[in-house]
Amino acid sequence: MDERQLIKAHKISLNNRLSGAMTGVREVLSFDAGEIVLDTEQGIMIVKGEDLHVTRLTLDKGEVEINGRVDGILYTENEDKKREKGSFLTRLLR
Length: 94
Prior knowledge:
Layout: H1 3-6, E1 11-15, E2 19-23, E3 25-32, E4 35-40, E5 43-58, E6 63-76, H2 79-85, H3 88-92
Antiparallel strand pairs: 1-2, 2-6, 3-4, 4-5, 5-6
């Protein structure tokens, strides 16, 4: 089966850097006024900004809405994906 078919939908909608909605969210790992960390279907997503708030959270649907000034969005791989891929040396020797 194609790997893309196994990945659930993940979408971001950002309006004027002041409010946003995300789908494909598994869990809110942490949040404060300067940073929101989400576990998504595409890895760990970090939203940085000022006066950030989680305004709506519906984990059974995988939806999150935020507001505040968004300065940046960064993705990192979650630990499960890192373990699936193996270490650099393991991948090199395949």
